[in-house]
Description:
- The two termini are about 25 Å apart.
- The chain has helices at about 25-45, 60-65, 75-85, 100-110, 125-135, 160-170, 190-215, 250-255, 340-345, and strands spanning about 20-25, 45-50, 70-75, 90-95, 115-120, 140-145, 175-180, 220-225, 240, 270-280, 285, 300-305, 310-315, 320-325, 335-340, 350-355, 360-365.
- It has nine helices and 17 strands.
- The protein has two domains: about 5-25 and about 265-365, D-serine dehydratase-like domain (Lyase, Ornithine Decarboxylase, Chain A, domain 1); about 25-255, Alpha-Beta Barrel (TIM Barrel), CATH 3.20.20.10.
- Helix 4 (about 100-110) crosses helix 5 (about 125-135).
Amino acid sequence: xxxxxxxxxxxxxxxxxxxxxxxxxxxxxxxxxxxxxxxxxxxxxxxxxxxxxxxxxxxxxxxxxxxxxxxxxxxxxxxxxxxxxxxxxxxxxxxxxxxxxxxxxxxxxxxxxxxxxxxxxxxxxxxxxxxxxxxxxxxxxxxxxxxxxxxxxxxxxxxxxxxxxxxxxxxxxxxxxxxxxxxxxxxxxxxxxxxxxxxxxxxxxxxxxxxxxxxxxxxxxxxxxxxxxxxxxxxxxxxxxxxxxxxxxxxxxxxxxxxxxxxxxxxxxxxxxxxxxxxxxxxxxxxxxxxxxxxxxxxxxxxxxxxxxxxxxxxxxxxxxxxxxxxxxxxxxxxxxxxxxxxxxxxxxxxxxxxxxxxxxxxxxxxxxxxxx
Length: 373
C-alpha cells in the first residue's frame, strides 16, 4: 500500500495539499545543516558521530555518513537494530544494555554489524557482557560511560579507572575509550554559563584521560558533546568525536539557546496542520493537538500560514488552537509549526514528508520510530 500523500509526489504545489497532521522536512535546509556540521568538524579536527535518536532514519543517517560522519549513535538497542537493518555499519549505542535478553540482542547485533560499540558504567554488567561476548565468538567494543555531573548514567571519574581496567583485561571485550555527554548544559540560554559548564566537564574528562594514559590505558575514543555545545567542545581538545543530533532539524528549545542571535543551524523540521474550524473572531482550530507534538517543552511556534503575531496552543488530543488579531483564518488554511522538541515529536510519526520549496519530493520512513527497547 502506498503511503498517505504518495499521490502528491513531484506535483507542483503538493506541499500545501498534504493530508495533515504531517511531519515535514525542508530538504534544502536539512542538506545545509548536514553540510555545515560536517565542515565544522573538519575545520576543528574532530570526528563526527551524529546521534540518530533525533531522526531515527536510515536515509538521514546515510546522508550524514556520506557528508563525512564516521558513524552514528543510537540511544536504544532497538534504534540500532533498525538502522543496522538499513545497512548502517558503524553504530555506538549510548545507553547501557543490562538485561539478559537485551545483552543477547546486543551480541546478535554485534555479530552482523562491522563496527558496533556499546557503553558500560558498571563492573557487574561488564562481566556479563564479557561472558556473552566470549560465548558469541566476537569481541564487543566498549566505551566506559562517564558521569559529567548529570547523574543519569555513567561512572564517576574517580571510580572509572577500576572499570576501565576490568574491561581492558576482559577476554570478550575490547576497551575502545570513554563516553561523556553533558546533557544538562545543552539548553543553557546563557552562552557564558553554557561554555563554562561544558568546558568544566571536559576538563575533568581530560584529567581522567591523562590518569588513564599514565596507567597504560589511554582511551582511543572520547565521545560526547551535543548541538548546544558543538561550537564550545572542540576548544577543550579532549573529545575525539561529537555526538551532535538535533542540529539536523532544530526545534523551539534549541532555537532559544541562541536568544537574540541567529541560530547556527536552520529549522528544517515542521508539523504541518490544517485549520478545521474558525467560527469565533480571532480563534481558529487545527487538526494538530497533543498527539501531533511532544509536549514536554511547551507549545509549538507558528512558522508560516497564520497572521503575524499569531500564537499556537493545545486545544485537545486531536486539535490545536491559533489565537490571532489580524486577517482571518478559514477552514482549509495550511499552517506550519516549528516543533517544541524534535526528538520525541519524530517518534510520533511513521514517515517524513520531504519537500523542496512547495513540491513534495520524498516520503521517508522513520525506521527507528517506537523502538523504545
